[in-house]
Specification:
Layout: E1 3-9, E2 12-18, H1 24-31, E3 50-53, E4 56-59, E5 72-74, H2 87-94, H3 104-119, H4 138-144, H5 155-165
Helix pairs in contact: 2-5
């Protein structure tokens, strides 16, 4: 008993007919051919499938496509403006914040989400003063990015890239 779902992915609206059990990740990859989000663990533990859903970073392998009907989905492909990379994408390149590149799209989307969270003053588990302005120390970056695993171990460069994109590394 397939159902219809409308998703706006990287600025383009798509209406799909999907099985109710179809995850957002599978809809993006298998139905729309968007290979940016990766299927890593398929259990929400590695972050390779991280996308922005209505501006919030979420693991697309844990979301049913039908539950996001009408949502604005941004993958790492949708962050660039034509050939102009986003600040986060540029910082990842400049700081060599990738090795094999498998986790990079999820890392980039997560970093964009981190910067938005900080901009909106959302504290993390390591934020010392909950009523103070939220800063972006290396400990904050590590904590906030901890849901995105890199099997190659590029964490030092990822932290530097996020700091650079936030304007703190200049």
């Amino acid at each position: 008993m397939d159902r219809s779902v409308t998703l706006t992915v990287d600025g383009r609206e798509h209406t799909l007919t999907v099985d109710p059990r179809t995850t957002l990740l599978d809809a993006l990859r298998d139905r729309l051919g968007n290979m940016s989000p990766k299927k890593g663990c398929d259990h929400g533990q590695c972050g390779a499938c991280t996308v922005l859903v209505d501006g919030r970073r979420l693991n697309s392998c844990l979301l049913l496509a039908l539950s996001r009907d009408g949502a604005e989905i941004t993958t790492s492909d949708g962050l660039a403006s034509g050939d102009d990379l986003s600040a986060v994408q540029r910082a990842f390149l400049e700081h060599d914040a990738f090795q094999c590149g498998y986790c990079t799209p999820g890392q980039v989307c997560s970093a964009v989400g981190v910067l938005s969270e900080v901009e909106h003053g959302f504290p993390s588990a390591v934020t010392e003063e909950l009523d103070a302005e939220v800063g972006l120390s290396d400990a904050e970056i590590r904590e906030r990015m901890s849901g995105n695993l890199c099997r190659c171990g590029a964490y030092v460069n990822i932290v530097a890239a996020v700091r650079e994109a936030a304007g703190e590394g200049r």
